Amino acid sequence: MLRGLLDSAAVNEPHAATDGNPADALLPHALRIRASGVLGRSDHLRRLFDYLVDCAAQGRVPKEIEVAIDGFGRDAGFDASQDALVRVYIHKLRRKLEEYYAGPGQDALGRLVIPRGEYRLLVERAPAIAAQQSTRRGVSRREQLGLGLIGLLLVAVVLLAVLHYVRPGLDPQLAAVRGGAVWKPLLDDELPIQIVLGDYFIFGERQNGAPQASRLVREFDINSRQDLERRLKAQPELAQRYEDLQLAYLPTSSAYALREVLPVLLAAGKPVHIALASELSPDVFKTSHVVYIGYLSALGLLQDVVFAGSRFSVGSSFDELIDTVGGTTYESEAGGPLKDSDHYRDYAYFSTFGGPMGNQHLVIAGTRDTAVRQAAEMLGNPRRLAELLQRAGAHPDFEALYEVYGVNRTNIEARLLLASPLDTSAIWSEPRGDEAPAAQASK
Fold it and tell me: What pLDDT does residue 338 have?
């Protein structure tokens, strides 16, 4: 119903509110909010917003149980005392509306609001909100700045890679890299290539009852907006403190690594997409060649895939890799405070393995920035690739570990510690409990 109502609404300039709050005043606001993208990708938020707009257009004020059943599709047995779904998403929608009017909608003559303790939308007159705008704009601009920096990073590295690829005097060794056993399986067919950047999901926290987030938070067990939604559903009291600002951050090594990797991939003349690990769908493992770039701690749902057939496991701090076959623990020294003159060790990890549909996946990773940069550089160097392939032998699916030496946050050199075959049968099948020990022993 919302689409039909919005299609018939005028949407040119912001409208002043009318006391009766009729549909012809509310719907233009709703359309602009919908078109702004502020509701994000949450299906629950969009459904709730559309439902409340429909109710407002009909002059109806729904109860919580009606929102749950008619808005979210819950059954008649929904128990509001045991499930805070409606209250959580009403709170989230209220924050999204505030975000919109603190940013792209700040010049509107009126605004949509959800009154406290109610489940309805109404248009509030502009004079009532003028005094609030100055305090809300600051946070919104910081949110936009965070998103803008990530976008600029991706644009910049793509441009750098393209310039590197087309400039006169291009390194003639690049053709040898593309034709080697590591990259060739990704370039010789029609499948798209999906670059996955290891990112860290962050969210806002409001302190002391403040209406807007005052600081950004990173929690190791909240790695996506879905994780945050699950946390808020399990602990609805946190909805008053935590807020999804649709932000993530990338390590600086991602830009340097992309500069090395993109020239290799662009020559294929087929689609090359870039996505964040926190937004990755498992479908990509079947439909594309996947190239992961980033920290081992940012693998997200890739972690189980990458290490299912590996001889390594990741330590609790993610700054260490444990060799379950050799019994050695490799711990990065790049995580602590370092002086400019300090020499330190970091660890780069690489693996390549076939996907379930004949595609190929590459992992270019490290415990810290120094190792990620070194891993990408080595995979663009024919001599280092030849050394790697010689150590790996005839195995098409293998992993490798490098000890990287750094000074002043810069990768200087690396030593190949080992190259070992991967057990791909363990990657794409889930062994029964009684098979796990045998699989481990075979590594």
Answer: 63
